[in-house]
Amino acid sequence: MTETREGWLAERFEEHRPQLRAVAYRMLGSLSEADDAVQDAWLRVSRADTGEVENLRGYLTTVVARVCLNLLRSRRSHPEEPLEDRLPDPVVERDGGPDPAQQLLVADAVGLAMLVVLDRLSPAERVAFVLHDVFGVPFAEIGEIVGRSPAAARQLASRARRRVRGGGAVQADADPVRQRAVVDAFLAAGRAGDFSALLALLDPDVVVRADFGTTPLGRQVIRGREAVARSALGFGSLARFARSALVNGAPGLVVHRESGPFAILGFTLRRGKIVELDILGDPQRLAGLDLSAFAG
What we know:
7-stranded mixed β-sheet
């Protein structure tokens, strides 16, 4: 590869990096792993002969997908922790002014609740579903990536689609103003210790998934309106530290105390009620996110 070709390829790769990061994030549910996968893809591409590549964007997407598939398979072979208990990394930004690059990461309704469901798919199912249903990659190309025929790749995506629908992925409310009103009302009720108001905001089958890592709070799942409302009252003293945020593109909250960030809350609403609440409070993972905008 000539120096001119190397420079041209590096520029084109940087142009596509936000899109490639979005692909990797949906595949892996981890911001750091997504960045690593994209960088790994660049190392592979920079050493490859790309002179005959006609569709560079498609080629780069394929390379990133192969890297992600290997990472997903490695997770299954050597799990460091129960996958079903670990929340995906949230994409967090200040409410009111979404960054275009951040918007690309969480487009197509990729909320925390959806990523939780995607974590339950097999590696090949997840790759097929994300590439086809989100990014429109043909099944012939997906088949080459996962080592299956185009027909088998189609079946993988179809099976993943059924598992996503049956795995609790709900159709969330799309109106951000309505979502923010509910989240603000939830915060106000928590601050006031108003049990009845909390109950009124929660779906009867509401589910809370909380991941506080290795702290005494650990990982927990709370189900049912009354149990969730009681839990919210227990954390009422922290409500005054909550700040409005966009969490994976939807209204959420960041709890940031004087000592540093405590938790990120991502909400999923349906018909004006909170149906899912995902709380990331793992200090180690929070330390890896830029939450400085929520301090003070």
